[in-house]
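Weekly sync notes, structure subgroup
Attendees: PM, AL, DS (notes)

Item 1: joint prediction request from the bench team. They want all two components modeled as one assembly rather than separately. Inputs as received:
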Amino acid sequence: MPKKLYWLQCGGCGGDTWSLFNAESPDVAQLFDMLNIELLWHPGLSHKSDDELQALNVRLLSGEEKLDILCVEGAIIRGPGGTGMYDAISDKNGSGKPKKDLAASLAKKAEHVIAVGTCACFGGIGAGSDIEAVGLQFSRWDKGGLLGSEFKASGGMPVINLPGCPCHCDVITGMLSLLSADMPIKLIEKYQTPVEWYNIMVHQGCTRNEYHEYRIEEKRFGEKGCMFFYLGCHGPLVKGPCNKLLWNRRSSKTRVGVPCFGCTLPDFPQPYPFFETRNIEGIPIKLPSGVNRPHYMAYKGMAAAAAPERLKERKTGI
Amino acid sequence: MKRIFPMNRVEGDLKITLETDKGVVSEAWSSGTMYRGFENIMIGRGSLDGLVITPRICGICSTSHLYAAVKALDMICQTDVPDNAVRVRNICLMTEMIQNDARQAALLFMPDFCNSRYADSQLYEEAFRRYAQLKGQMAIETIRESKQLLEIIAILGGQWPHSSFMVPGGVVCVPGATDISNCRYLLNTFRRWYEKRFLGCGIERWAEVRSMADLNIWLEESESHRNSEIGFFIRFSKEAGLDKIGRGCGHFISFGALDMPEHTEIKSLNGGKTLLPAGFDLTPFHQRNITEDISHSWFGGHLEPKHPFEGVTKPYATGSEDKRYSWAKAPRYEGLPAETGPLADMIIAGHPLLLNLAEISGGVSVFVRQLARMIRPALLIPFADIWLKEISASKENFFKDYEMPESGDGFGLTQAPRGAIGHWVKIRDSQIEKYQIITPTAWNASPRDSNGVRGPWEESLIGVEIRDDDNPIEAQHIIRSFDPCMVCTVHAINPSPGPSPERRGESSVYSPFPFREGGRGVR
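Output from the run, pasted for the record:
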């Protein structure tokens, strides 16, 4: 039996769907053709009419039809005042029911629930704003969200979080590949993210790493050095596979000179300005996790002293 | 009778309500049903934060938001942008437009040809072969080819969607010779596919099609023309009567797009500062003439006239209790609604084929609007290739250092794949004090204004015969030809004035505008 997949879009930009379209092997068409996944519904792909969609929802919610995988993209919008009416369903009956209720009902029926992208995981851009956005099982750093901290899908796992703004296409197709083959999924407990893609720092694989190593740090855009000390790069601080998998098969933000904004973090977008690093006496306030500050300062001082001329003069390629 | 008509394959949530009288649409309401509150999220953030946050308004046109955001900051910093940076920005925006043109056609618009309404048509099976969900040959090819084209933006900007590689004074990347040659390879690979599949001929041959007569000759000229996407679209449209529906509101607006580098072999289409000219119908455009109306939108606060620099965003959810019915506001230019998108761009730029089609049929239609969308890559690809070549021949910089003042006002206007996009920004004490955004779909999906004047979609639907209330495919074709993107629209804009009294008489009826001296009006 093919696994049946339902993709629900809530309060988001559609960017995770368009990221999914970047997928290469398998690409979107191959994914549903070859991986034993039947696409029940995707708002951007399906040709179903509204009548057919409503009938499908009835079958899924009554249990008449099985729902194997529920993917939710976009934040759960609860505003105003907890009503969810800032994101209402536009069905034919004009019921105007909040989308959040449909998300909760479908989640209770699904064997696996996947939050695709930072908004669906943690609330993202609309968290803390007047739309009262939350994620499926988190509200920024705190467990809870729409479904509550105790929620487990019928398959026994909590919501599987795939953060990123957007989520990398290979993470989405990889996750669906594992589920379609009933392969085991190991989560990092704290934020329910798969070990497979979220146990690596963003700067792992960045072509500027040699500059990072010798503390050749840039203060202006358009240079070759590292952006961690002054330009607000989160590469050494934040988990994500950007520089391992690369984007659109080609590059990454940090490689071309855009600082990592930490878009997989539960509090993305951060409350302080982008493109600058908050620091104490020239050393970033936030250091790579687990690092001892005095040791780090000593190491960075020595690294800068040891920096070779070819790096100081930015003579290398990146 | 009054029926609600939700649409799928739309970015975001859209509800169309139609009232029909003996099968003919007598009233139409276009509602955005989601509010995301982006402008309020921007208040109090760092001066540059628009470059990170606003691309995330929309997953399909994030580069367009970035372009608008950076232009507002260029203005605030009063910085010059080096020619190479302008070229990189333009190439990326064009790439986003071109991939979107192909996807809109093959993945969003044409799949409606597989609707059960056309089951008896001889073209029905062919439509399925081309566009069936994730199975049709064009659907699959378009997924593959458009994705590869987007690698250009990753090479120059790191990733697509949602990068922030444009900064005041230029771009952050310093592409090398192989980067540029890879971009050219990707562009020209796409070009070959587009020529083969969409046009059935070279871009040069297509450029000779300058009138309806030329188009008819072209169609009959060869099998490859007839079997191309354009050829199939023409054949299907004639049979389905798409040239007879979807007139629009009678006005077109473009903010202008693709800034001209100081030195380039390309001439802009009207000699102005952008390759695609700005305009309102055939009159010069000025952003100070833009206003918005919230009389029928779920926003409160105040109702008096405000320019985007002045307005605030206060959601006011009344449900269906009063006349308010949308999270989209009603943008107006000199008090008038206006259609925006590739058709508007190209009509304002004086595209001979589209002007001739509009002239001969006494107005535009779903057919003309969708044709404009599908032929735009033929216009843009050669320009993008020239700018890539110019980068590889130049030793100039891609970034010029800038100084960000503590306070300042700026606006950034450009064209997204589906039309006019603008950001209006006020910085005070190194923080964003105000950020107002008008998106393309805000123009097209506009609800009524305080004079009761309908938005472009709503107006386009009036008078259309719906043959089957349970399957109003005619309405779907019309809305789809505008390429609705509700995720952009529903984040709200700001209160604005109604039309000035002297324009009121005009705005309640179609206002034809002459597209050339002594020519006939275009509706």
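Discussion: The mean pLDDT of chain A is 95.
Action: AL to compare against the crosslinking data before next sync.
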